[in-house]
Amino acid sequence: MVSTKTKNRSPEASAFYTAGLILLGIVVTAFVISLFWTPYSPDATDATAKLLAPCAEHPFGTDNFGRDVLSRVMSASKYTIYISAAGVAIALILGTIAGIPAGYFGGYIDKGIMLLGNSIMCFPGILLALVAVAVFGASVTNVIWALGLVFAPTFARVCRVGTMEIKELDYITHARVMGVKPYRIMGFHIFPNLVPQLLPATVIGLANMTLFESGMSYLGLGVQPPDASFGKMLSDSQAYIRVAPWLVIFPALMLVFYILGLYFISEGLRVNLAKGGKR
Amino acid sequence: MRSKIIKPAIAALALGLAFTSFAGCTRKLGNVDNNAVVGITQEPGIFDPHTVVAAGDREIIFNVYEGLYKYDSKGSLNPCLATDVAISDDASVYTFTIREGVKFHDGSDFDAADVVYSLKRAAGLLDNQDGVALVGELDSIKDVKATAEGKVEVTLEAGNTELLSYFTTGIIPENYDNCQAAPVGTGPFKFDSYNPGQNVILVKNDNYWQKGLPYLDKVTFKVCADMDAGLTELASGSIDIFPYLTTDRANQLDKAKYNILSNGSNMVQIFALNNAVEPLNDLKVRQAINYAVSRKDIISVTMDGAGVELTTAMSPAMGSYYDTSLDGTYSQDIEKAKALLAEAGYENGFNITCTVPSSYLIHVNTAVELASELKAVGINMEIKQVDWATWLDTVYTGRQYETTVIALTSDYAPYDVLDRYQSTASGNFINYKNDKVDELMAKIPTISDTKQKTELYHQVLKLLTDDACSVYLQDPATITAVSTRLEGYSVYPMYVQDMSQVKPVTK
Amino acid sequence: MQGKTGYFVGKLIELVVTLFLVSLLVFIAFAIIPGDTARVMLGPDATEAQVELLRQQMGLDKPLIVRYFTWLFGIITFNPGTSYAYNMSVGTLIAQRLPVTLGMSVFAMLMVIAISYPLAVLSARRPGRIGDQICSVIGHVLFAIPPYVASLLLILLASSLFRLITVGTYVKPSDDFLAYVVCLLLPSFAVALPKIAMSFKFLRSSIIEQRSSDYVRTSKSHGLSDLKILIRHVLPNSNVSSITIISIILSDILGGSLIVEQVFNLPGLGRLLLAAISRRDFPLLSGIVFYLAFITVLLYFLSDIAAAISDPRIRLK
């Protein structure tokens, strides 16, 4: 986010920022408003108002419980943002902490870390989530930890490969020769240079996390009803795609807005960083 | 230059693909001629007629094995491999007359020795068994023997007038012990193969003792990932029959291609309250919850209206055993619910958890609607989904829960429905305890007068309702889609897919 | 040469250790989660005695640790054991499901390569032009569509509008290979869609990065044509990251086709895995996880080696 303040913004980057901020803005606005107000209570069922098509009273229609879809989409943005952001943050932190030293030191440290990472990656995420839920109970927080753990090795790999490339560069070698401490090299020289590689990985992580979360909702492991996330709303409304398409369209749109918005912003960042690096 | 070649090449490739897809998949439809494909959502597992318990297995092997008696689509018991039964006055000896001229699928003749072997095996009386009955309810059998006139005499430890329905258990050839891998029975269909995760295939039994039956040559029970995957297959025509749909899903099907059958299922959907935990151990709290719930809205939301409201532990599908005087005992009354909660000392409500099995959409949806309704009386219900294995382990057998939603299934026999409310019953997962109920349930099997027995059943039902032991919600209809190219399918008031009467529509 | 052999041996040891760790994780998971195979198979109506009987028949009465070591010993002797729930050899069960998952992975991967490579190359030739922008936007949108939404849309499109494919019809490759391919096309496409977008994005940016590097500019000034530069210099160098990406994608596809299998009702490994979890079938689950882990580790192993070969900076140790 620092680099948005640099002066040499290219028109390409600005276009990405604008598009990204608008799309993400829609989701974030919905989220912020939902904290104070929703048109209806998102959980209030009404058996007399089932599956109403969008109308003046319910702009996004109602679902099979007679709940207002607009209100639900608004409150779903909360869980989607929360779960994906917190999950990625955990994965990113764990991945960086493990990945950079692995790439920097190599040898047994590298081997050990990558072995553990590979083992986790090979382990079905669903089973991991099931264990987390069995031990700590079904809750959003546990799901986030499970997701963070499942996704950490991906970030570790990106960091490791990136570090291996960067550490061969002249200025790192110089720093090492001059006796700069390894943690300083890793923290202040290598990590900033990994950001361009980590950003797309983060966005992909956010997207994958959102998708994985909805996959877990299939098995009842994600967000618990009556709460919802976009992914859960989509999987719940699967059966109504023919008769009540609004149940699918609105959460799907919001999901696409969310991921696309993040995507564009990271693209803008990437363009800017690439330009900045060349200067 | 290059693009001029590439474009036609791509077009040709695309066209080729389109044609192969016609050729490839239409050829393999499989549901032509005398075959039928039934969609099931539970993976089958057990094919042994004596160890089978799960509903999803029983509904398949109903076509393979037959018992001395057999249910019909109305739920009445008819003689099958027996031609009749004589029950002694104290109901401790059942004497069956054995049908003649029946052959097993392996070609051997069916006789009294097979019956003796099968019943002994079911009751755990064979020499190599350690006395544990495979069919729990037949545990009370003391001895089985063939009489001189070719009849079979079953002696019980104590008189029991309620046992006939359990003689529907399958009869297998004498000394046969490989039913799990290679089922052999006398039913209208022979077991052909089981492909895990995919299907169970049954083929016609040409020597079936009921002449002219069955009509179909082959029946495939195809495993579908879930209800929605099954629906997709129905819509695309790769399944002919699909039971256990919800109304809103059934309504999406093409009416010209599918008939939608709807019937009471004899299931009891229950909002189970663990009577052993606070505050649910308080009668007033349980009654308040009963008054807070709108059964009509739950049926509307979960089954689109296709269900029968319940206020007691038995479905009206059970006929005269059901007590109509209990209808509407707990119709929704928010004020009364609040007053009862206040009396119990919970005027500000309380928090509670509902642990539901995530694999059953209807129960999850019910819990969502219940949570919304309970909020009106100040009860804050949090929903916790668990997978089926966890539910069985922690909720059902472990009884570590506060509330749950589940459907209780049973045979079409009143004793089987109410058995679980005895304080020592293994199925009493709600921890219900009422000495009067225990006493009545012990007395019923000794009564042979139907009228008196019905009266006792009514008393049990009344006690269960008065104690508000749980919230009885609905008997959800069994909704089945049947391809219009088939006829003769009937919906049973229990888990049964009777394929023997199904035949292609002749034009 | 010595170094290379050592490298391979080291990697091989890693592979074995990883597989052992994975199996240990499965065991720990099983020790923690509640549930019992016999009870799941018999359902709630079974009495405790009936459940106990089945448990004995299946050998479930032995403690889990004993069963784990039995299983581990079996694996070492290439015998993955017998599934509790299906009473069949785990190897047979996996082999039955393999054509679906493997076919889907291979087809999806082919689609990813066939679509994303040319598009990325074309897009990157003139970055910022209208064609590139359209490709990028479409790529972004595709990436943002969840696989099961894509599956549902594809099913609606293919079965309702064109009546091309009967959804849920699976044909074994041994019965009719062409029909097998056709039946897997649509689900493979659903799996491939987001991965196409992912691979496109990575390839495009790495090609652009490479193009702006000095050596490419030098060769350009020497009069080499665009295409030659692309094939000789840009692609091989961008391969380092693309190999990594492809192996990530492939393992994603292998493990992540579960929902697509579910929607299309295909009997693949993903659904078998889910069945094994839901029925608490320890030998079966261990077998599948072990197998998937083996493939994934092998892929990473190969991608590491490929990366090492195509980029001398990552030294073989």
From the spread of the alpha carbons, the general shape of chain C counts as globular
Mean pLDDT over the full residue set of chain A = 82
- Specify the biggest β-sheet of chain C: none
- Give the overall pLDDT of chain C as a whole number: 77
Which regions of chain A have little confidence, pLDDT < 50, spanning 5+ residues?
Answer: 1-7
Q: Counting H and I runs of at least 4 residues, what is the number of helices of chain C? A: 13
Kindly describe this structure.
The complex is a heterotrimer of chains A (279), B (507) and C (317). Chain A is mostly helical. Chain A has helices spanning 11-36, 69-105, 107-122, 125-136, 140-166, 170-177, 182-218, 230-236, 246-278. Chain A has nine helices and no strands. In chain A, α3 (107-122) packs antiparallel against α5 (140-166), α5 packs across α7 and α8 packs antiparallel against α9 (246-278). Chain B has 507 residues and is α+β, with helices and mostly antiparallel strands. Chain B has three domains: 10-64 and 187-263 and 478-504, Periplasmic binding protein-like II (D-Maltodextrin-Binding Protein, domain 2, 3-Layer(aba) Sandwich), CATH 3.40.190; 69-168, Periplasmic binding protein-like II (D-Maltodextrin-Binding Protein, domain 2), CATH 3.40.190.10; 268-476, Dipeptide-binding Protein, domain 3 (Roll). Chain B is 28% helix and 22% strand. Chain B has helices spanning 2-26, 55-61, 112-123, 227-236, 247-250, 283-292, 295-303, 334-343, 361-374, 388-397, 414-418, 435-443, 450-466; strands at residues 35-40, 69-71, 77-79, 82-87, 93-98, 141-146, 151-156, 189-195, 199-204, 218-223, 241-245, 258-263, 268-273, 307-309, 351-357, 380-386, 403-408, 471-476, 478-483, 486-487, 503-504. A four-stranded mixed beta sheet of chain B has the order 1-10-9-8, with no helix packed on it. In chain B, α12 (435-443) packs antiparallel against α13. The radius of gyration of chain B is 26 Å and the shape is globular. The termini of chain B are far apart. Chain C is an all-alpha fold and 317 residues long. Helix content of chain C is 78%, strand content 0%. Chain C has helices at residues 2-32, 37-42, 48-58, 64-76, 90-125, 130-143, 147-161, 177-211, 214-221, 226-256, 258-264, 269-278, 282-310. Chains in contact: A-B, A-C, B-C.
